[in-house]
Q: What sequence folds into this?
């Protein structure tokens, strides 16, 4: 049964919206139950309104009920934290967007391979030029960061940096490498610049921090279509924390969404938000993403965020997937609303229900012209 932890019922003008959101979350619970999903947490945030948090299921069979402080892996949603961290440091003059890969990872061989024109901005905008997901297989084989970066340095690019979309995880290893050269780490920098200033109660980095929580969500994988079993925590992507190393509860994600909506300007400035959500490279494949096909009209990658064009509306989005977990976050800067789903199962249901929320939202909230545009996509 879905547990509603916080709900703002300011009726009169908001009752219709409350009704469809309640219908949506009830439907989500029914679908999760039918698919035997172990558990999830959902949060809906609107500026100047009390956040709505819904939880469902358990950390594992016989475990604790998922609540607002249950910790999940964010997987690639971590990239949204990384880009924001870099933007904050850049504003302080502690790092520069045009910092070369040869400075980020000087011992990795990029200098001798003539790749000095590859910068931090190219890495965070997924426009490095290397074949997409290069050497993810080596990450999963537990190769060291240095070894993976050395292999990348020998790889022939598909295009010049900044000229095409080439999604990467391995190159994010250069970010933590740079911090270690400064006698710090990604985890220390994120905690000091983002987690602590935003007063996130449960967020952290790494496998140890995940499993040290007394109510962390255990990872689950499918045995067959509707049966899930608990599995081990894979630590390989935690060795590349800037790509996929952040953990958070839904309560943390409420704060994160509020920051993305501009509620914490001293930590995440309006200039930072504009910088992160400005398109860098077009990502046509996103138009065919499961659940979103027919809804998204155009798509780009900014800095650690995807940008979806839906009719006349712009949606900022990212998802994450690592063994046993799925995560998704999206927000509309124009309408000041955001939604996050965290799940302790590798279920494709998240693709369907995430897109369904935004389709419903645009249909209920926008003028008839935009409603017609969204409906036509169905």
A:
């Amino acid at each position: 049964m879905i547990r509603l932890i916080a709900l703002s019922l300011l009726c009169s003008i908001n009752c219709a919206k409350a009704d469809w959101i309640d219908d949506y979350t009830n439907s989500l619970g029914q679908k999760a139950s039918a698919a035997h999903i172990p558990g999830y947490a959902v949060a809906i945030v609107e500026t100047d309104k009390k956040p709505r948090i819904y939880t469902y299921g358990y950390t594992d069979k016989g475990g604790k009920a998922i609540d607002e402080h249950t910790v999940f892996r964010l997987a690639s949603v971590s990239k949204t934290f990384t880009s924001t961290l870099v933007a904050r440091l850049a504003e302080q003059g502690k790092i520069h967007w045009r910092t070369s890969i040869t400075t980020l990872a000087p011992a990795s061989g990029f200098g001798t391979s003539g790749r000095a024109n590859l910068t931090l901005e190219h890495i965070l905008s997924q426009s490095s030029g290397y074949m997409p997901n290069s050497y993810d297989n080596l990450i999963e084989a537990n190769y060291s960061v240095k070894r993976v970066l050395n292999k990348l340095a020998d790889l022939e690019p598909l295009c010049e940096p900044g000229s095409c979309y080439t999604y990467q995880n391995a190159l994010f290893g250069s970010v933590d490498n740079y911090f270690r050269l400064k006698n710090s780490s990604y985890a220390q920098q994120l905690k000091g610049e983002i987690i602590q200033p935003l007063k996130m109660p449960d967020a952290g980095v790494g496998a140890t921090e995940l499993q040290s929580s007394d109510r962390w969500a255990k990872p689950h994988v499918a045995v067959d279509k509707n049966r899930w079993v608990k599995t081990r925590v894979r630590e390989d992507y935690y060795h590349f924390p800037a790509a996929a190393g952040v953990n958070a509860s839904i309560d943390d994600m409420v704060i994160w969404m509020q920051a993305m909506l501009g509620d914490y300007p001293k930590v995440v400035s309006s200039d930072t938000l504009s910088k992160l959500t400005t398109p860098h490279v077009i990502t046509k494949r996103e138009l065919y993403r499961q659940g979103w096909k027919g809804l998204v009209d155009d798509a780009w990658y900014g800095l650690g965020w995807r940008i979806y064009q839906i009719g006349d509306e712009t949606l900022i989005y990212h998802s994450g997937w690592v063994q046993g977990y799925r995560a998704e976050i999206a927000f509309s800067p124009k309408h000041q609303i955001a939604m996050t789903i965290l799940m302790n199962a590798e279920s494709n249901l998240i693709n369907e229900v995430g897109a369904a929320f935004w389709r419903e939202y645009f249909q209920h909230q926008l003028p008839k012209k935009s409603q017609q545009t969204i409906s036509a996509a169905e």
The CA atoms of residues 59 and 217 lie 4 Å apart. The chain has two domains: 3-74+206-376, 86-181. Residues 86-181 form one domain.
